[in-house]
Specification:
By secondary structure, the chain is α/β, with parallel strands linked by helices. It is built from 7 helices and 9 strands; from the N terminus they run H-H-H-E-E-H-E-H-E-H-E-E-H-E-E-E. A 7-stranded mixed sheet has the order 5-4-3-6-7-8-9. A two-stranded antiparallel ribbon has the order 1-2. The protein is globular. The site of S-adenosyl-L-homocysteine has 24 residues, from strand 2, helix 5 and strand 4. S-adenosyl-L-homocysteine binds next to strand 2, helix 5 and strand 4.
Length: about 220
C-alpha cells in the first residue's frame, strides 16, 4: 500500500483508531462496520486542504454546496442495513464524494449509486477504481425515481432528506428488503427504517438527524 492510502500524521492509523473508538462510544457495535471505518481512507474522499480533518467525526464540504456525511451517521446507517438482512443488491441515493458508497461496496454484492450533481457523479468511478472497488455502478440522475432496471433491491440508503418518501423507492425494495432515509423538514429530520414484508411495509423511527435536502431534477 502506498503512503496516501496508509496516511501519515493526521491521516495515520492512530488517528483513525481514535475515530473508531469515538464511534464505539456513540453506540456503533458492528465490528465489521468499525473495521471499514478504520481501513477506508476517508481523507482521499475530501479536498486535500481538508485531509487533516478527515478523521474528525464531522461533516465536511465536498463542493457544490454539499457535504460528506458525518462518519457516525455513515456508520449508523450502514450498521442498520447490515444488521437487518442481506446486502446483495444495494441502491444508494446521493453518492456525494463516494465515501458511504465505498463502505457499502465492501459489504454488498453490487452497489447502484445515483447522484444528481454531474460534477460529483462523474469523478466517482475513477476514485472508486483507484481504491480497488469494482462492484459499483454510478448514474447521474434524480434518485427519487430509483433505478428500475436493477430493481428489486435488498437495501436502499438515501443520504439526503425529504418531507416524504418517494414512492418509487419503496416500490423497488425486494421482499425482506430494508430502506433507510432521513425524513422531515430541515431542523426536524428523523432517520427512518422501512422493511418490506410479504404483507406490506414496517416503519421504524431511528433517531434525529441533519441532512442536506433531496433535490428534484439534475444539475
Ligand atoms: N454519502 C454522501 C452524502 C453526500 S450529501 C457523502 O458522504 O459524500 C447528499 C448528496 O445527495 C449530495 O451529493 C446531493 O447532490 C445528493 N442528492 C440530493 N438530491 C438528490 C437526488 N434527488 N438524487 C440523487 N442525489 C441527490
Amino acid at each position: 500500500m502506498n503512503q496516501d492510502l496508509n496516511g501519515i500524521g493526521l491521516t495515520s492509523q492512530r488517528v483513525r483508531n481514535r475515530l473508531v473508538e469515538q464511534l464505539r462510544g456513540m453506540g456503533i457495535v458492528s465490528e465489521t462496520v468499525l473495521e471499514l471505518v478504520r481501513t477506508i481512507p476517508r481523507h482521499l474522499f475530501v479536498d486535500e486542504a481538508l485531509a487533516s480533518r478527515a478523521y474528525e467525526n464531522t461533516a465536511l464540504p465536498i463542493g457544490y454546496g454539499q457535504t460528506i456525511s458525518q462518519p457516525y451517521i455513515v456508520a449508523a446507517m450502514t450498521e442498520l442495513l447490515l444488521s437487518t438482512g442481506p446486502l446483495g443488491r444495494v441502491l444508494e441515493i446521493g453518492s456525494g464524494c463516494g465515501y458511504q458508497t465505498a463502505l457499502l461496496s465492501r459489504l454488498a454484492g453490487t452497489v447502484y449509486s445515483i447522484e444528481r450533481i454531474a460534477g460529483l457523479a462523474n469523478r466517482l468511478p475513477e476514485r472508486l477504481q483507484g481504491l480497488g472497488i469494482h462492484n459499483v455502478h454510478v448514474a447521474h440522475g434524480d434518485g427519487r425515481d430509483g433505478w428500475l432496471a436493477h430493481a428489486p433491491f435488498d437495501a436502499i440508503l438515501v443520504a439526503a432528506a425529504a418531507p416524504d418518501v418517494p414512492a418509487p423507492l419503496l416500490d423497488q425494495l425486494a421482499a425482506g428488503g430494508r430502506m433507510v432515509m432521513p425524513v422531515g423538514p430541515p431542523g426536524e429530520q428523523t432517520l427512518m427504517l422501512w422493511r418490506r414484508t410479504l404483507e406490506g411495509y414496517m416503519e421504524e423511527t431511528i433517531q434525529r438527524v441533519s441532512f442536506v435536502p433531496l433535490v428534484e431534477g439534475v444539475s
